[in-house]
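dude i think i finally got it to work??
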Amino acid sequence: MSILLYPPYIQWEVVSDCNHKCIHCYNYWRADNIDVVKHSDFNAITEQIIARKPVYVAVTGGEPLLVFPQIKPCIQKMIDSGIRVSVSSNGTLITEETADFYECNNIDTVISFPSIDPEICDAVCNAENVAERLISRLEILKRHNVQTTINIVLTKLNLPTLYDTLKAVKEWGFTARVGIAQRPINASKEYIRYELDRDDFRHIVKE
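look at this
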């Protein structure tokens, strides 16, 4: 049997901070204004990743687009080294420049979108006007033909709108994936309050 000498997949959490505070996020407990990694460290980490010759690197956070100017040359360097790269994001900070970079480098993206209902979307993300802002950013990705997967993480809050959200995703021409939030060891009371139960799982299967 041959020995695998390199990791096929690496997930790189480039920043801890985020402009949302989603109730289902495994990083929900992190405080505001966390220091980000310095640009020099991004470069050093990039060199370490390239040296390990992974097939695929998923750039995530926190919200990775908070530090897009710093990580953009690092992503480019990984791609130039033959590594496939994707970016997981809440999508609200996407710009024409970001989408153009994705398109030119064949970068796919996973976008978190909890609900097509604006009020529920805001409640899940603990932010304002999320659905409106996100839909406009998805239009940018579509214009640039960026391969986009919509990630719907379910709690009791957004479960009632699952069907309508999936219907919207299909109409937009994107792929969707549905996930179940797993309880962190230090879960908050709010998290536990909206955690799914057995009956909810039956509803998911039906939808």
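The first strand starts at residue 9 and ends at 13.
im so relieved honestly
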